């Protein structure tokens, strides 16, 4: 799937300002962005529900949208999964799943339905149920089975997990990822949930204000975002003002830290540290700090630390510690940084 | 993230074309009146309007309108309150009985009173008959509001130190106000359109006078100017509606789990309350039904015209089915565009299509007759012209239902079907149509039932030799052949019962029958 220079405006409001994105065949690309960034519009343009103002969309080598040319969605060979699943309420699970198949294949019925339901880990007994008799997670899986039935080369997923509650979400995500991989389809997943994007995708495209800010593998984009904004979007971030000292080193409120790569060619920089890089101890290495707040979450806890001697100009950073860490608000601790950090031109 | 807006897609031009045709049709009567007014010029209009007779008609109409609307507002609110909020014995049964008068066309109620008590006529007779016919138009929406009202609000008011009475006045009454005012204005629109009931009672309003003028001078300038006056009155009511309730109605909280809770005990007022609702049911339902039964029995002993009754029934049903199909088909694109392509043009088309809601049948009929005679003389007194009038009058009934059904149908379903390889026509057949079937069925049924009891436009437009239940009844009732009229009236009431039932669900949407 190749999207090139796609722009789109609704009235006077530009939504996409030249989006270029390539999704290699058989991989899952997550488009991650805040609501209103244009990611759903991009998905709808790829699907053919909207037309781009400029730019082209090609699916498996065939241009489906471009200057003076737009293939209607039904001829694009896509699978489309919506937020709520959008099962046809007047049809049974079986009829829903078979909906996209030619009439001849629809007649085969039973065995085909069971096979399709199995690909999404659903029991064949569900075939005769109606959508309202299913749980949210089951509905989403049926919707995926329906989308995969015609064997589309490209599957488009529009926040398909956001309406599920936390417990169901993880299970459904796993089932969907597995089924997509088994089908070998190229998938485009639009989401605002960074954990979901990082966990499911082969590559993550961060979208901001109608353009793609960065495309990379999940680990790479998390470790090495192109700017602090992308960094804060893909994960929790501690951002500090710093000063570039010697080559490969930066000094900031957390001390003198090692840089990943050479860093920018500037003296005044902005330093990005991930909370889990902070090592908090008593009389350990690093700079002194005082615990301000403590938020317990079970497996881990988050503390806010005031770094620096004077309380007035103290820099506040958040650190993630194991859930059994023995710190309380008011405690004096030391904080050090594990691993290299990233710095940006201010 | 929600969809910001959508571009036109395949199939839209056809929908826009049909929807525009529907809107133009709805605009035709008002447009014709406006053009005539311009052609007559200010002097011509003043000459025709500034007459003692017109003044008399306007006073008659306004006095009856204000009196009936007020009476219906008071009665309808009282019945809604009593059946929804007090421990009146048998409250649900009373509630159903208060909706039932809608199943009896007003001109049948009028016939029932006149034929039993020949002295009932003039203002008092008109006030009694129209109030008994129309108060359910207030009762139903107010009862719906009382049922849906979040009763926590009252509890909060009580907790803040208000007495039960004060809470009712400061919390419940404001919530009911849009429903009361909206219902009363609907009563007003019905009254402005009413011909049959008032003609039988010999109470001349503008509408009655237009019909009489038409009978004597055909579509002369006098009738046209009076029709213009009538349209202005209707528009005034609509403007009042928009100014008073438009916003409030939209802001109203929708459904919500109806929670059972304690009803206000009537105490010592229980017996008077029972007497009151009993008396009302006798007047609104008992008199018409008893009178109908009496004439049925009496007519049976003298003349039983099985043949003509059957012919008229078949004609009414046939016209009803045809009009239902045409109106629903014509309205669907309007509803679809309004829901799926929100924008200035769809909104304009939708508003225009609602115009028939406020137009009396006589105005629509008159305009169609004159336009047909000027432009396509062959159309006059043909079934297509009659069906056109029905379509203009009853498009709003279809529109409300189709719109509600479309709103409940998420657009993603159509998108998903496209994505699965179905071309637009297949999506319509396999997804949209089955899911809309109920809404479209309700739309068609309401149009069918409204057509099968329509009198005024049918009298003016029916092809020579075409007799419907309503016109056959009318011919006999005006000839004082009360016994012979009864079987036709009874058949109409039987056909109307399902309409009344359907209307109980839709009346608060502001749609006239």
Automatic annotation (TrEMBL), chain A:
Residue ranges of domain ABC transporter in the record: 1-234
Record keyword Zinc present: no
InterPro entries named in the record: AAA+_ATPase, ABC_SmlMolc_Importer, ABC_transporter-like_ATP-bd, ABC_transporter-like_CS, ABC_transpr_FbpC, Mo/tungstate-bd_C_term_dom, P-loop_NTPase, Transp-assoc_OB_typ2
Keywords: ATP-binding, Cell inner membrane, Cell membrane, Ion transport, Iron, Iron transport, Membrane, Nucleotide-binding, Translocase, Transport
Pfam families hit by this protein: ABC_tran, TOBE_2
Keyword Membrane: yes
Name of the protein this chain belongs to: ABC transporter ATP-binding protein
Lineage, top ranks: Bacteria, Bacillati, Actinomycetota, Actinomycetes, Pseudonocardiales
From TrEMBL, chain B:
Localization of this protein: Cell inner membrane; Cell membrane
Pfam family, any one: BPD_transp_1
Keyword Nucleus: no
Membrane-topology annotation of the record: Multi-pass membrane protein
The entry's keywords: Cell inner membrane, Cell membrane, Membrane, Transmembrane, Transmembrane helix, Transport
Coiled-coil ranges per UniProt: none
CDD domains (UniProt xref): TM_PBP2
Transmembrane annotation, as ranges: 16-41, 62-82, 94-116, 123-144, 180-203, 223-246, 267-297, 317-339, 351-373, 385-406, 427-451, 479-503
Record has Transmembrane helix as a keyword: yes
Highest rank taxon of the organism: Bacteria
InterPro entries named among the record's database cross-references: MetI-like (IPR000515), MetI-like_sf (IPR035906)
Residue ranges constituting the ABC transmembrane type-1 domain according to the UniProt record: 58-242, 313-503
Entries under Gene3D superfamilies matching the protein: MetI-like
Annotated family: Belongs to the binding-protein-dependent transport system permease family.
Name of protein: Iron ABC transporter permease
Organism the protein comes from: Actinomycetospora straminea
Lineage: Bacteria, Bacillati, Actinomycetota, Actinomycetes, Pseudonocardiales
């Amino acid at each position: 799937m190749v999207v090139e220079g796609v722009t789109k405006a609704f009235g006077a409001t530009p939504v996409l300002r030249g989006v270029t994105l390539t999704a290699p065949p058989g991989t899952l690309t997550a488009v991650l962005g805040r609501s209103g960034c244009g990611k759903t519009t991009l998905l709808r343009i790829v699907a053919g529900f909207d037309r781009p103002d400029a730019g082209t969309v090609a699916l498996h080598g065939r241009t489906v949208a471009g200057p003076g040319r737009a293939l209607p969605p039904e001829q694009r060979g896509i699978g489309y999964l919506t937020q709520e699943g959008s099962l046809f309420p007047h049809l049974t699970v079986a009829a829903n799943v078979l909906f996209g198949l030619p009439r001849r294949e629809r007649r085969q019925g039973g065995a085909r339905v069971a096979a399709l339901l199995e690909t999404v880990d659903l029991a064949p007994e569900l075939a005769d149920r109606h959508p309202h008799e299913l749980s949210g997670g089951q509905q989403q899986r049926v919707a995926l089975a329906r989308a995969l039935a015609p064997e589309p080369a490209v599957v488009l997923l529009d926040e398909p997990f956001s309406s599920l509650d936390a417990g169901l979400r993880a299970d459904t995500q796993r089932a969907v990822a597995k089924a997509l991989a088994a089908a070998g389809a190229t998938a485009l997943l639009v989401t605002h949930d960074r954990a979901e994007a990082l966990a499911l995708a082969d590559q993550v495209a961060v979208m901001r204000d109608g353009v793609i800010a960065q495309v990379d593998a999940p680990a790479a984009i998390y470790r090495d975002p192109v700017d602090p904004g992308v960094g804060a979007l893909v994960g929790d971030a501690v951002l500090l003002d710093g000063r570039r000292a010697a080559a490969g080193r930066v000094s900031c409120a957390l001390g003198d830290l090692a840089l990943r790569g050479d860093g920018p060619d500037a003296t005044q920089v902005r330093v990005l540290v991930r909370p889990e890089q902070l090592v908090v101890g008593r009389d350990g290495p690093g700079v002194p700090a005082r615990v301000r707040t403590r938020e317990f979450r079970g497996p881990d806890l988050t503390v806010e630390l005031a770094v620096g001697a004077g309380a007035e100009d103290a820099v506040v950073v958040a650190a993630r510690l194991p859930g059994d860490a023995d710190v309380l608000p008011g405690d004096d601790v030391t904080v050090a940084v594990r691993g290299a950090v990233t710095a940006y031109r201010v | 993230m929600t969809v910001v807006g959508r571009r036109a897609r395949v199939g839209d031009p056809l929908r826009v074309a049909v929807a525009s045709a529907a809107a133009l049709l709805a605009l035709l009567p008002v447009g014709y009146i406006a053009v005539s007014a311009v052609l007559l010029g200010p002097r011509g209009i003043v000459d025709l309007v500034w007459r003692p007779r017109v003044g008399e008609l306007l006073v008659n109409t306004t006095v009856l309108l204000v009196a009936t609307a007020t009476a219906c507002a008071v009665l309808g609110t009282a019945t809604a309150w009593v059946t929804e909020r007090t421990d009146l014995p048998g409250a649900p049964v009373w509630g159903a009985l208060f909706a039932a008068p809608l199943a009896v066309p007003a001109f049948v109620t009028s016939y029932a009173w006149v034929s039993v008590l020949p002295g009932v006529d003039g203002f008092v007779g008109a006030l009694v008959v129209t109030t008994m016919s129309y108060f359910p138009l207030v009762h139903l929406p107010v009862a719906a509001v009382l049922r849906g009202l979040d009763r926590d609000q009252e509890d909060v008011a009580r907790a803040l130190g208000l007495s039960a009475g004060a809470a009712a006045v400061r919390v419940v009454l404001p919530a009911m106000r849009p429903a009361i005012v909206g219902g009363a204005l609907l009563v007003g629109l019905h009254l402005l359109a009413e011909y049959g009931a008032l003609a039988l009672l010999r109470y001349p309003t503008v509408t009655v006078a237009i019909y009489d003028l038409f009978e004597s001078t055909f579509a002369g300038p006098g009738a046209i100017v009076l029709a213009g006056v009538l349209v202005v009155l209707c528009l005034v009511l609509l403007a009042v509606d928009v100014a008073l309730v438009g916003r409030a109605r939209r802001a109203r909280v929708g459904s919500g789990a109806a929670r059972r809770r304690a009803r206000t005990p009537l105490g010592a007022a229980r017996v008077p309350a029972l007497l009151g609702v009993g008396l009302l049911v006798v007047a609104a339902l008992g008199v018409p039904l008893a009178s109908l039964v009496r004439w049925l029995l009496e007519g049976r002993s003298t003349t039983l015209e099985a043949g003509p009754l059957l012919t008229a029934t078949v004609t009414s049903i046939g016209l009803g089915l045809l009009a239902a199909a045409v109106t629903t088909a014509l309205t669907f694109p309007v509803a679809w565009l309004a829901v799926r392509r929100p924008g200035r043009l769809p909104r304009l088309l939708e508003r225009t299509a609602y115009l028939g809601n406020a137009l009396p049948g006589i105005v629509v009929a008159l305009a169609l007759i004159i336009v047909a005679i000027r432009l396509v003389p062959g159309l006059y007194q043909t079934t297509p012209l009659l069906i056109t009038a029905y379509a203009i009058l009853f498009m709003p009934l279809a529109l409300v239902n189709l719109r509600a059904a479309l709103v409940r149908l998420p657009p993603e379903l159509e998108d998903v079907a496209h994505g699965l390889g179905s071309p637009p026509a297949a999506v319509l057949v396999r997804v949209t149509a089955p899911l809309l079937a109920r809404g479209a069925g309700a739309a068609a049924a309401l149009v069918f039932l409204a057509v099968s009891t329509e009198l005024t436009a049918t009298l003016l437009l029916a092809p020579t030799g075409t007799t419907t239940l309503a016109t056959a009844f009318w011919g006999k009732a005006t000839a004082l052949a009360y016994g012979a009229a009864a079987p036709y009236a009874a058949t109409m009431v039987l056909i109307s019962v399902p309409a009344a039932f359907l209307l109980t669900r839709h009346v608060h949407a502001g749609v006239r029958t």
